[in-house]
Amino acid sequence: MSSLNHCIKFDLDVKDENIVFKDYFYKSIKLQKHKIYKAELIQPACPFCGSLDLLHNGHLITNIHYPTANASLPVIIRLAKQRVKCRDCDRRSMAQSELVNKYCSISNASKLKVLSALTEDRSMTSIARENNVSINTVQRVLGNCSHRFIDSYEYLPAHLAFDEFKGVDRQLHFICLDGDNHQVVQILRTRYKKTLLKYFGRFSPQARANVKTVTMDLNFYYQDIVRACFPNAQIVIDRFHMIQMLTRSFNSLRVQVMKTFDKRSRQYQLLKSPWKLYLKKFDELEKVHPRYNWHYKDCLTQAQVVTEGINTSTTLENSYNLMQSFIQAVETGDAHELKSLINCQDQIGTLMHKTLLTFKHNLKAVLNGAELPYSNGCLEGFNRKIKQIERTAFGYSNFTNLLTRIRLEENLYKEKEPNSLLMVD
Ligand SMILES: [Zn+2]
């Protein structure tokens, strides 16, 4: 073999023994300068009978897109595939190579490069441009690996987390994560009860019996699903969600009380501008150094502001104390304290009362939320990541593509090793 052949093979990282490079040159194709390598793909033996007695019958010339270091100078391998007819079995065949699949003109190396780029947070357009392929090719590579994520129905993790996120067409999709290792168990197109029941119903009874806890927000039919599908599972209400509900109802009560005062009054201003202080934990408020605030025209510490603010109404004071103790109890996992707080008879305003009533109806699940270490915190982080994926792509119109992309990016995130994704057809 010539040294030119070796040199080009080394340069392009082509290992196939049957490919022989013969020439290279520049050529302008559609006004763009291309780097062209000419090569021949040899058919050494008949693929059907292994005979070496072949009759050569010309070549099929294909232009193969190959990865390049410089995206403005695309590389094309002009490969002449030998066509042969076997003298022994009389059958015709054409040489094939690992370099490119049959009927394809995009090299497998290019596809792999596209696939590994798809595991990063990049838009398909930029991937296509860098690899000198069309956006359709990138989409096809993405579509080709969607079958990788077909799950078995034999196993479910012990701790699940349910949530939803906004995706294609502003629809809400259902997502289920493993509570321990935070990997996606499943993403479903819709979050309707029927779909969920059908999906989880497909799992074997052993798999469903394996589920010990399911973390969720206070969506009422998720609980029905758990009761219907997982005989051994405890329902856990996400503790951040509980606190959020309570904080929201306190906040609307604060606004209600605020509106009973005159806009120029001190009480109104104390309840209005420093609203964020009311949502903080009382222990974390500044108690020593007072600050002047021009809204209420006084020099007060943060603790003084809050104390004076809630003193404007008994209802507000009661609900503030309740909220603070509730957060405290949730954080320390004090189920006993939580129970007495939920059964609290103080005057606390209708909305807060409604929230507590909801908690009361789901008492066991709420107490689980405080006692068990599981929460939907992992899901919130994951939702943030999905939003990023969608933003980078300016939105997805195809749910399967979005799903595959999420899975691809997630896999890399977990393993930092794209090798498991190698070889697409
Ligand atoms: Zn043969």
Automatic annotation (TrEMBL):
At the top level, the lineage of the source is Bacteria
Alphabetized Pfam families for the sequence: DDE_Tnp_ISL3
Q: Which InterPro entries match?
A: Transpos_ISL3, Transposase_DDE
Q: Please state every residue range assigned to the domain named Transposase IS204/IS1001/IS1096/IS1165 DDE.
A: 161-406
| Protein name in UniProt | Transposase
Gene source species:
Lactobacillus hamsteri DSM 5661 = JCM 6256
